[in-house]
Structures are given as structure tokens and as C-alpha cells.
Write a structure and sequence with these properties.
Belongs to the V-ATPase 116 kDa subunit family. GO terms for molecular function: ATPase binding; proton-transporting ATPase activity, rotational mechanism. InterPro entries: V-ATPase_116kDa_su (IPR002490). It is a multi-pass membrane protein. The protein starts with a helix and ends in a 6-residue tail after the last helix. About 65% of the residues lie in helices and about 0% in strands. Strand 1 and strand 2 (about 200) form a beta hairpin. A two-stranded antiparallel ribbon has the order 1-2. The protein is built from 17 helices and two strands. Among the domains are: about 1-75 and about 120-175; about 295-460, no CATH class; about 460-535. It has helices at about 1-15, 30-80, 95-100, 120-130, 150-190, 210-220, 230-235, 240-255, 290-325, 330-360, 370-380, 395-405, 410-425, 435-460, 460-485, 490-530, 550-555, and strands at about 190-195, 200. It is elongated.
Length: about 550
């Protein structure tokens, strides 16, 4: 239908007929109205095609007849000039009149008929050859059946104008109706069919300001509007909630923390005597000592940094698959490899220092252990003369300097320049290369990556803060609620413990599971979306164009 309307619109514009625009915004027609619209459009299209065909034929015949009229007028002048018999020598006979009477009587005949005009020359040549030149041919046009072509042409043009003027009054409304239906069915084609084959399923974005109108349209289309929207949202994220629960149990086992209490799973390995064995799993029960928070603070902070650096290195490794898929070998050599070297030579080195410090110092020498933070800052400042912060090992200054130099290797800007030089030798239509813009763009990219690695590593410390906050809240609930019931040893204490545990369970679910769980989910989502994905995800796609009837009404039709 859209194709037929475009044909009618082209004919209207060809005839210089203005299209009427009343500003009307019609509703989307029902499916049953599509048949009537299509039949009406097909009727107008066929009528216009028939008029155009007849008009072209009439114009062609009119041209041919006009040419014939001028030819007859010109040839008539030739015959008038030769009408005097005295001027022709061929008119005098070679024989005497008396001798002509004694000859054999002449046997002459004639044939009359009708023949197409274009066949006359061929017919004349054929008669000349068959009769050996003894033939006299005359022809005349048949004028009676011919009609006045100007009148017929005017009538055809008037009829065409009436059809186009009638269509010009409604074509704008027709366009809006058809393209609204086209846009709706195009959107429906992107939906998935339900297993019951009775409905279509799709996930869409919509402006918050249009939620009321969308709900109104849904209520108008069905008797029972959707209910339990909040619980359906939770049900949609059931797998994320399951993963959060599994990893909460996992981290609880790592830190030996269950409702703010430590479990004596394998017994205690702590002893005043020299210790040479390692605890089998998690933190042992002795962490209930007074220096528990001091130890866990340092341990959780270092664990957050280690997990963050491993996570970011995994993200940089994923960029290798992007470069391989898009066939950019130079981006691998000058982009992926320098990024990996930068991360490992600086932050990977920091992880090695953390493990080295854990193994190099025992309980007696831990007071003399240097600060890794100060060491890391001094490494960038090339300052190794701080007497208050001793070296971790011999030759650390030389190794730190080498790590800084390796981290400042070639960057992706070199790959961009070389890549363009190679492309320019193979394509003459390549985009004009501006060395200055490329240098500025890639320099900004390099600075963002280097600073981003530092800020992203610090951002993973939110895991440490969340763990401490969750542990403290759990300890407060245990101490201020459930511990009250456990202190009473009488029978009344057991009865009170029943109600106290109900309050404890309610507060645990409301505060620890829902509020703290939502907070942990949002922070984890942030770490995945920003710190992790910016190592490999470019986000170069196409602009999102929301579905809107307003664009269709204004004539902004998008394919």
C-alpha cells in the first residue's frame, strides 16, 4: 500500500497539484479496514495507470496525424504544379490518331483497397516490380472515421486532474495510516512468539513520562491489566539473586563469617609455640581476638585489590578476541600487548608484592614490614631513599625502574597511524588522514587508560568497604537482638528467644538480605559495567531511535 501511495503522490506532484495538509492525526486503522484501504488504493492506481497509458497513446497518434497532415499539404503543392498538360512532353502521343485505331485494344484493369499507411511504400515497390513498371498508383486518406484528437486529449487530461485532485485531499491522511500500520507490524516482527502460539513477547524501552499512556493503552486492550509488577520483576532476576546467594556463602566461608560469628570447623591451629602448618580452609576461630578488626581490615583490603586486578586483566584479555574478530593485527601488537604489559608491570607487580609480604614476614618481624602503599607511590616518584620505609628485597629500586620503563611502551596511537598508512596505500577513497587529530585522540585515549587503571583499582576497594559494613551490621544484630535471648537461662528465656528470633530473622532479611543485598548488587553491577567493560567494550553502535507516531505524522519516515 505504501508503494501505491508513493506512485499516486508522484503523479500528484508531476501535475503540480498542492497536497492538502489539515494537521489531522488519524488513529491506526483496524485490521479489517486494511482491506478497504488496499482496494481503494488499487483502484486509484489502476485508474491512473490506464489514464496515463491512453493519454500517451493519444499523444503519439496525435503527433503522427499532425505529421501526416503537413506531408499531404506539401505534396499537394507538387501535384498542383504538374497539373497543366501542355507543360508535359509525355502528354503528346507518338502515333497518329488514324494509326491508333488499327492497334490492338488495350486491356486495363484496376484494383482498390485499404492498406495501412506504413505499408504503402513497400506495396508500391512490389507493384512496380510485378507489373514491370506498367502501373499507375494513387492513394487517398480516409478522413471520416477520424475524431478530433484535441478534444479527446483535453477530456483525458480533465479526467486525470479530477482523479488526482480527489486523491490529493486524502493522501496525507492515507500516508499516516499506512505508515503507522507499517511501523506497528515492523515492531511486532521483532517480537518472539510464545510457546502457546497465542501472544508475542518483547522487551522494550519507554519514557517514564509515557508510562500512564502505555498503561491506559494496555487497559483499553485487555480487561485485566498486569498485576504484581514488583514481584514479577524480582522473579525475572531470580538467577541473579541465586548467584548472589551462592557467592555470599562462598565469601562467608572465605572469611569464616556466619551471622557475624566464626565457626570452629577444623579446630584452632594457633599456638604460642612456633607454627609450621597452614589452616585447611577459611580463617580459623582465633579471629575473635581483640585484634580481629585490625587483621581483617588489612586482609580484606588486599583481597579486594587482588580480585580487582585479576578482573581487569581478564577484561583486557577479552579485547584480544575483539581485535581478532575484526581482523586488526596492529591493534593486537600496539594496543592489547602494551595494555597487558602496563597492567602486569605495575599492578600485577603490586599483587606479587602483596603475596611476597605475606610470606616474607612472620609474627615477630611483622612490625618492621614496610608499607606497600608508600612503596608503590615511591616507585612512580623514583624515590628510594625513605629511611622510614625499608626495601622489601635487595635490588628493588632497579626492578621498580625497569617496571616503570616497560609500562611506558608503545600505545595504540602507533597502531592507528600505521593502520591508516597501510589502508591509504590500498584505497584511494579512504578518509583524509589528519596526523594531529589522531595524535590528540590517541594521546587522550592513552592518558584515560593509564589513569583509569589507577582509579579502577581504587574503585575495587568498595568490596572491602561493603564487606566491613555487612560484617558490622551482622554483629550489631547478633549482639543487640539475639544475644539478649541467649543470656537468659531460665524457661522464660527459651520462650522469649522464640519471639526474639522472629525479630532477628525479620531484621536480618530486611536489612542484611534486602537492603545490603541490593547495595552489593548495585556495586557489583558498577564494577562490571565500568571498571571491567571499559577494558574491552567500545560501545560503538547506532543511535537508539524510539518508536513514535509523532515522527510519522510529521513526515519523518525512517526505514
Amino acid at each position: 500500500m505504501d508503494r501505491k501511495l508513493r506512485f499516486v503522490e508522484k503523479e500528484i506532484r508531476k501535475a503540480n497539484i498542492p497536497i492538502m495538509d489539515t494537521g489531522e492525526n488519524p488513529e491506526v486503522p483496524f485490521p479489517r479496514d486494511m482491506i478497504d484501504l488496499e482496494a481503494n488504493f488499487e483502484k486509484i492506481e489502476n485508474e491512473l495507470k490506464e489514464i496515463n497509458t491512453n493519454q500517451e497513446a493519444l499523444k503519439r497518434n496525435f503527433l503522427e496525424l499532425t505529421e501526416l497532415k503537413f506531408i499531404l499539404r506539401k505534396t499537394q503543392q507538387f501535384f498542383d504544379e504538374m497539373a497543366d498538360p501542355d507543360l508535359l512532353e509525355e502528354s503528346s502521343s507518338l502515333l497518329e490518331p488514324s494509326e491508333m485505331g488499327r492497334g490492338t485494344p488495350l486491356r486495363l484493369g484496376f484494383v482498390a483497397g485499404v492498406i495501412n499507411r506504413e505499408r504503402i511504400p513497400t506495396f508500391e515497390r512490389m507493384l512496380w516490380r510485378v507489373c514491370r513498371g506498367n502501373v499507375f498508383l494513387r492513394q487517398a486518406e480516409i478522413e471520416n472515421p477520424l475524431e478530433d484528437p484535441v478534444t479527446v486529449l483535453n477530456q483525458t487530461e480533465d479526467h486525470r486532474q479530477r482523479v488526482l485532485q480527489a486523491a490529493a485531499k486524502n493522501i496525507r491522511v492515507w500516508f499516516i495510516k499506512v505508515r503507522k500500520m507499517k511501523a506497528i507490524y515492523h515492531t511486532l516482527n521483532q517480537c518472539n512468539i510464545d510457546v502457546t502460539q497465542k501472544c508475542l513477547i518483547a522487551e522494550v524501552w519507554c519514557p517514564v513520562t509515557d508510562l500512564d499512556s502505555i498503561q491506559f493503552a494496555l487497559r483499553r486492550g485487555t480487561v485485566s491489566p498486569p498485576q504484581l509488577a514488583m514481584f514479577s520483576t524480582v522473579f525475572s532476576g531470580r538467577y541473579i539473586i541465586l548467584l548472589m546467594g551462592v557467592f555470599s556463602i562462598y565469601t562467608g566461608l572465605i572469611y569464616n563469617d556466619c551471622f557475624s560469628k566464626s565457626l570452629n570447623i577444623f579446630g584452632s591451629s594457633w599456638s604460642v609455640r612456633p607454627m609450621f602448618d597452614i589452616y585447611n580452609w577459611t580463617l580459623e576461630i582465633w579471629n575473635i581476638a581483640t585484634n580481629k578488626l585490625t587483621f581483617l581490615n588489612s586482609f580484606k583490603m588486599k583481597m579486594s585489590v587482588i580480585l580487582g586486578i585479576i578482573h581487569m586483566l581478564f577484561g583486557v584479555s577479552l579485547s584480544l578476541f575483539n581485535h581478532t574478530y575484526f581482523k586488526k593485527p596492529l591493534s593486537i601488537y600496539f594496543g592489547f600487548i602494551p595494555e597487558i604489559i602496563f597492567m602486569t608491570s605495575l599492578f600485577g607487580y603490586l599483587v606479587i608484592l602483596i603475596f611476597y609480604k605475606w610470606t616474607a614476614y612472620n609474627a615477630k618481624t611483622s612490625e618492621k614490614a614496610p608499607s606497600l602503599l608508600i612503596h608503590f607511590i615511591n616507585m612512580f616518584l623514583f624515590s628510594y631513599g625513605d629511611s622510614g620505609n625499608s626495601m622489601l628485597y635487595s635490588g628493588q629500586g632497579t626492578l621498580n625502574f625497569g617496571g616503570i620503563r616497560v609500562g611506558n611502551g608503545p600505545t595504540e596511537e602507533d597502531a592507528e597511524i600505521i593502520q591508516h598508512d597501510q589502508l591509504s596505500t590500498h584505497s584511494e577513497d579512504a578518509e583524509e588522514f589528519d596526523f594531529g587529530d589522531t595524535m590528540v585522540h590517541q594521546a587522550i585515549h592513552t592518558i584515560e587508560y593509564c589513569l583509569g587503571c589507577i582509579s579502577n583499582t581504587a574503585s575495587y576497594l568498595r568490596l572491602w568497604a561493603l564487606s566491613l559494613a555487612h560484617a558490622q551490621l551482622s554483629e550489631v544484630l547478633w549482639t543487640m537482638v539475639i544475644h539478649i535471648g541467649l543470656k537468659v537461662k531460665s524457661l522464660a528465656g527459651g520462650l522469649a528467644l522464640f519471639f526474639i528470633f522472629a525479630a532477628f530473622a525479620t531484621l536480618t532479611v530486611a536489612i542484611l538480605l534486602i537492603m545490603e543485598g541490593l547495595s552489593a548488587f548495585l556495586h557489583a553491577l558498577r564494577l562490571h559495567w565500568v571498571e571491567f567493560q571499559n577494558k574491552f567494550y567500545s560501545g560503538t553502535g547506532f543511535k537508539f531511535l524510539p518508536f513514535s507516531f509523532e515522527h510519522i505524522r510529521e513526515g519523518k519516515f525512517d526505514d
